[in-house]
Amino acid sequence: MKKYVYLFKESDGKNKALFGGKGANLAEMTRIGLPVPQGFTITTEACTKYYEDGKMINDQIIAQIETKLAQIEKITGKKFGDPTNPLLVSVRSGARVSMPGMMDTILNLGLNDEVVKGLASLTNNERFAYDSYRRFIQMFSDVVMQQDKSKYERILDEIKEKKGVKFDKDLTADDLKEIVELFKKLYKESQKVEFPQEPKTQLIEAVKAVFRSWDNERANVYRRMHDIPYNWGTAVNVQSMVFGNMGDDSGTGVAFTRNPSTGDNALYGEYLMNAQGEDVVAGIRTPQPIAQLEKQNAEVYAQFVAISQKLERHYKDMQDMEFTIEKGKLYMLQTRNGKRTAKAALKIAVDLVKEGMIDEKTALSMIDPKQLDALLHPTFDDAAIKKATVIGEALPASPGAASGKICFTAEKAKEEAKNGKVVLVRLETSPEDIEGMAASQGVLTARGGMTSHAAVVARGMGTCCVAGCSSIKFADDGKSFTLGGKTYKEGDVISFDGSTGKIYDGAIETVEAKISGEFATIMEWADKYRALQIRTNADNPRDTAVAFSFGAEGVGLCRTEHMFFEADRIPEVRKMIVATNTEDRKKALSKLLPMQQKDFKGIFKAMKGRPVTIRFLDPPLHEFLPHEDEEIKALAKDLKLTFEELKATVDSLHEFNPMMGHRGLRLAVTYPEIAEMQTEAVMKAAIEVKKEEGFDVIPEIMIPLTCDSVEFKYVKDIVTATADRVLAENKTEMKYKVGTMIEIPRAAITADQIAKYAEFFSFGTNDLTQMTYGFSRDDAGKFLDEYYSKKVFESDPFARLDQNGVGKLVRIATELGRSTRPDIKLGICGEHGGDPSSVEFCHRVGLNYVSCSPYRVPIARLAAAQAAIKYPRKRK
């Protein structure tokens, strides 16, 4: 019989795939002798079975849960549902990777009208017993029955107001009894049944709810953002309760072995006395810094410090720990590798190597390459900060510089972010806000601490966050707030710094990021181990210089059409397009030639002899022409044509499916003079740079949209004839290469024939994905959201390379190309070039390089190193 349920002491602390991260770590803490309240883990396989069985838990799994529950009763000496000595449990989710706040938790399960009385007399603490019961009813209603929790919060707030108290902890036992009755009444009104009194029913329903939460909207959004497969499922941990709300000698807290914001090697965390775990993370009360605990209970503090050091040494990484103190006794509820900012991730990795705890390869493997994105974005300019007006200060929860229009709801932030930069300002965030947080430049909360939901999730996303700004006073209608003596409404602009916690009036100028300190060290180590070259997609000298400063080893894609769109060039481009004969077309092209030459020269200079791949004109010609009648009239006047003549030309260039129309290499076949001009501009620029700067330039000319070897040879012959003529005229010897983009499936499966003539391939994975799927990238957004919500697709094929289909074509083309030309250079230049999972795929397939946008170069460098550590190979 298959085993689905394991006691912590039976579980394998290394098998996170089966027991989830939380379950595996509880097992491991139990094994190394830490004070862990005992319990059992229901495996991820049980979650998968729950979905396979139509969202039902089968009798076999229920029987195993009951068996393990009986064993926990034996271990604890308490009995589930027994008023004289009750066992209460928590029910928590635990996926194999940490997903803070994305799934559900229930505490104090096992309480009912009789057990609560028994608990009160057993502990001689009526207030504690009824506080635990009201919390349980509230959580069960929210998580299991999916009732609106704000209705319960409203009852709580009304009673506090009536009794004249500010905090939950100030309510008396009688107040809490009244709240319990009101909660049960609300439950009955909503569910049309009494609140369940049978503890085993409560338990099975709670387990189902945690399994169900794996598929809730916020968990699905988080999984897509972090590339977590849907079929992993979540484990469920059922753990005997220990209570932080038993009085002033009890408490609960969350701590990190190092600072998760800066990476500094100092214990960092927060706790609340007379509270339960969710109170700290929910951000409803602002907690005390962990160091204060030493003053309240030096013995417990010393024990906690020793445990935290032991855990960090054991896991060889910064730990995020949850603990409870019950009547002066410390219990560990969880440990996991802590979420951290990009800055902290680099510092912790480098420090752990210096401390001799890990080696360089381990350090590189523990950093999420996507996190580096946060370090590459601009920071506030020092001079601008000095002039700015500070309106408030709070906890610097996640670093970064945020400026934008204020939004008060996640929905509004998501909507407004389409039109410009926004910041999300909330009393406190909840897991439902994740999409709004992702759309915002930064998050500012009035409540909550450094370990609140807002802080933890923002750090994981690399989003700036300032938390717990108690000076913010929201208006009763929630549509404005006052801070620093000024009232701010939705749409007003503020700025805040997640590194200092300072909040400023208005927008503040920013400056470009630089690679230095630990960042430079990590990049140095990455370069030592990686096998892939990293190039950049850059269309002008400025982008090239930025990419070069971030460590790019060449330009993998220079799109020449972007140069044509500039104001001083577009008139000549349009003259070339509307020309009715070759002579007029050449005349217009002759004016464009020096402009293109100047651009190429700037890029060759910036790259100092490194390879530069220049893609010839790719888009359909109609993209360069106006489409509105007023614009056509103005252009007709400039070109000395009638409106009718120009309109006829514009109409004749219109295509029903331009993506598959007259573009790319097809333009060079029909208008060879375009390819001639571009080749001449490239070669003249290279010759000039060689003469002026003294270094060799090896231009790589790339012909886009090839689908056939004969077609490619036709255009290559035009290019080589022109290049050789220019070299002869300038009495110069220079190597150059002519290759093609592989972006049509036919090109991939005939790559051996194309490689007879092409000296390199660059996979244009954007178009290759479009052509393979039959999706238009511009239109797919209309239906892809439905694909995600219905689990047809798990990720966006335009953001993450589809390795089964598009990837198979890349692999086929690589093998075929090398079978004809063993030394052929192979790279990738679509947006996928900066996606870590796609970089790993390119490494495994054996490509020579990946090319990505300038700000993704460090991400690709690190991802390439991680791929080489995982799958060793030589640099090609």
How large a portion of the residues is in β-strands, by DSSP E? Answer: 15-25%
Please tally the β strands and state the result.
Answer: 33
Q: State the CATH superfamily name of the largest domain.
A: Phosphoenolpyruvate-binding domains
Rg from C-alpha positions? 32 Å
Structural class by SSE content:
alpha/beta
The coarse overall form would be elongated
Largest β-sheet summary:
8 strands, mixed
Helix content: 40-55%
Distinct helical segment count: 35
Distance between the first and last residues' Cα: 51 Å
Averaging pLDDT over every residue, what do you get?
Answer: 92
The CATH architecture assignment of the largest domain turns out to be Alpha-Beta Barrel
Query: What's the oligomerization state?
Result: single chain
Name of the CATH first level of the largest domain: Alpha Beta
Low-confidence stretches: none
